[in-house]
Structures are given as structure tokens and as C-alpha cells.
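Re-run with default settings, no changes from the original entry. Doing this only to confirm the output is reproducible before filing.
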Amino acid sequence: MSQRYKILGLLGDGIAGEIITEGLKVLEAIEDRYGLDLEILGPYPVGARYWVDHDLKRGWPEELTAELFYEADAIFKGPTGLPDLVGKLPGSYTPINMRTELDLYANIRPCRLRPGVKSVLTGRKPGDIDYIILRENTEHMYVNIGGFMKRGGETELAIDNYVQTKKGCERIIKYGFNLARSGEYKGKIGAPLDGKRRLTCACKWGLTKGDDLFKDTYERLAKENSDIERDSTWIDSWSYYAIMRPGFYDVVVMPNQYGDIMSDMSGAIQGSLGLAGSINAGDKHCFAEATHGSAPDIAGRGISNPMSMILSMGMMLNWLGDKRGDKRLKEAWRSIDRVVDKVLAEGKVRTPDLGGTNSTKELGTSIADAVLKID
């Protein structure tokens, strides 16, 4: 009997429902193609719009309990948040803080120039850009330690403390060495320029104490991973080098806030944030989430690119395949990755962000149909 996997789904705001609908279409095709048994829990509505629609009393339905997050084998989530509601809601979007409470310390965001896609970098062709931004996901600027000082109703002082710990630095950097070694989520193992397995450390050591700890931890662990080439650069320098010589990079490990920003820049380098898949992974849990936001300006028009969500779901299956030792799940990810390349290379179905005129639904259907036709 095939093992059943419980996959928890969360819808989100803006274009979330549109891209998740197509992601589910591809998951169904994968289920048929590989004989998988995926039990989809939900998808449950969450997010800023849910708060507004429920008089700011709830951000999620009652049946979405904290226990579901721990019981699920994996989770997928659409983008949440609306610009006009930032900082104005009374609570979070889900019953738990997924990244910290599930301890999802590794945010894996590939940047790959795929077939049939033009980069903003002149002269770059598919295969020239293929690196991963590995973002530490639970520390640094987003620990939410800080506050305001007010006088006479006016905010006069705002403080944010960023935190780096030895444990946090060690585990994300070890994850980086292992990613460089395995080549998971990349087109090919190693950097495109020279094929070397390389882990780049990008932070701001020498100026901030937390980044000193991050860099010192990297140097110590590099001695234990001598099969992976070491490389270090300040984060501001890396933003320059990533544009000037992107083929040099294989896996780049960064503290939290830096990785958040630089992965968006990488979305532009690879041709569109609509191609930027992402997972938030830990040792026990994982959730897939497209790198881009909720894009309320195009919501409801049916023109959003679902590939980022589809690729994220595929990465989620690969993580689960490793955790459960199920080769079918890992092959399912490889198939989704290959099919996305095939559809892009053919150039027949493209959403507007890729220069086409097709709908979200048409692109999702083309990927699902191609999955079913895999030899």
C-alpha cells in the first residue's frame, strides 16, 4: 500500500488563490504519474484579507488549528499581506509563527536562468546563471526584538535588535556546505563558470558583531569541509559581483535580512520573480512559498505566473522525499523542474511577465499536461 502524505495548504492574499489552483493541478498530475497518495488539507484561507473580511477578529478559520501544522508532512502557502494593511492588523496570518515555531531555519531560493528566458544581464544564456541563495531564516533582523519610544503621542525612537547565535550560524552554514556538495535544487552541480562546488559566505563582518560570528563560524566549518571551495565577500560587494559575474556562484549563504533582499534581486537576474521557487526547511518541517508577494495590482486578472508556486511545491516534495526516503517524491521534483524548462523552451505558453499573452490557467495546464506525458 502506498504511503499517504498529509499536505497542509494555505491560500493567502492577492494572486495566491490563482497560483495555488495551478500548483494543485500539477500536484494532481504528479500524484497520477508517480502513484503517490497526497492528502491535501484545505487549502485554508489566511492572510490580511481574511482579517478584514472578519472585522479584524480572525486571521484564519477556526478549523485551522496549530496542531495541523505539526501533523502535516509538509505545507504550502500562498503569499500573504496587502500593502495598505501593513502594520495595521491585530495579529499574525496563521495560528503559529511558521518559521520560528516549526524551526524552519533554512530558506532555499534558487536563481537559475532557464531555457527560453532572457535575463536582464546582456549576453547571458541558459546555464550561465545557476546559484542558490541560502538564507538563515530565524535570526538576524527579523527576531522582532525591539520597540518604540513615544512622547506626546509622537514616535521619537524606534529600536530593532538583530541577533545571531552560534547554533543558528552553525546549522545554516553546514546546510550550505551540504547543498554545495549535493547540487540539490540546481540545474547542475557546481558553479557554471568552472564547475566547482563552492560555498560563498556573504555578510558584513568587521562592522557588526553578529556578522563577525557568522563569518568566524564559516571559516571554522570550512576547514571541516575542504572538498567545497571557500569564498567570502561583504554583502554589498556581493550585490555587485552577482550582477557582474553571476556564473562564479554556486551556493551563497547569508544572514536573514540580506538573503531576503538579495533573493529578490536574483529574481530579476533570472528573468522574473514568477520563476523564483522557494522552500523554508528545517529538520522536521518544511513549507513551500513562492518568493514573490501577493501582487494585489494584478489579482483577479488571471495573468500571474504560477511557475514560482509550482517550483516551490516541487522543492517541497524533494525535501519530503529526503526526509521519508521516498525516491518517487525526489523524482517528482526532478520531473517538475524538467517540465518547467521544457514549457519555457517551447515558448508557446507564456504569461505577461515572460513577454506572453497567456493566462495563469493556461500556463498551469500546460505544465500539468506535460507532467502526464513524461516518458
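The mean pLDDT is 94. The domain at 1-117+273-375 is CATH 3.40.718.10 (Isopropylmalate Dehydrogenase).
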